[in-house]
Amino acid sequence: MEIIHDLSRKQFQTVADGKTAYVSYDLVDGCLNIEHTIVPREIEGRGIAAALEKAAYDYALDHDLLPAATCRYATVWLDRNPQYKNKVSSMK
Q: What is the DSSP string of 67-92?
């Protein structure tokens, strides 16, 4: 799966079966905060959301940004990935 980082839109995106899935984020106080995770119903259940989260948070760590989440899915993803847990900033 190819994931593209669209800096101008602050999104990580991928296309599957002609449908675009993405996570949108904002940069706040040294954190990359994922605000929304959008995967069209037609392509759900393929691990696309998880791959997008991982790409975004790997980017954050590579750029000395703390992973953060206001998106419910992103919060759950961070809870399930303990390698990011010690680097988490809560935006709630």
A: EEE-SHHHHHHHHH-HHHHTT-EE--
The domain in which residue 72 lies consists of 4-90
Classify strands 4-6 and 66-69 as parallel, antiparallel or unpaired.
unpaired
How many C-alpha atoms does 32 have within 13 Å on its Cβ side? 25
Query: What total number of domains does the chain contain?
Result: 1
Task: Work out the mean pLDDT of the chain and round it to a whole number.
Answer: 92
Is this model's pTM higher than 0.70 or not? yes
CATH number, domain with residue 72: 3.40.630.30
Instruction: Give the DSSP H/E element, type plus range, for residue 33.
Output: strand 31-38
**What residue type is assigned to position 6 of the chain?**
D
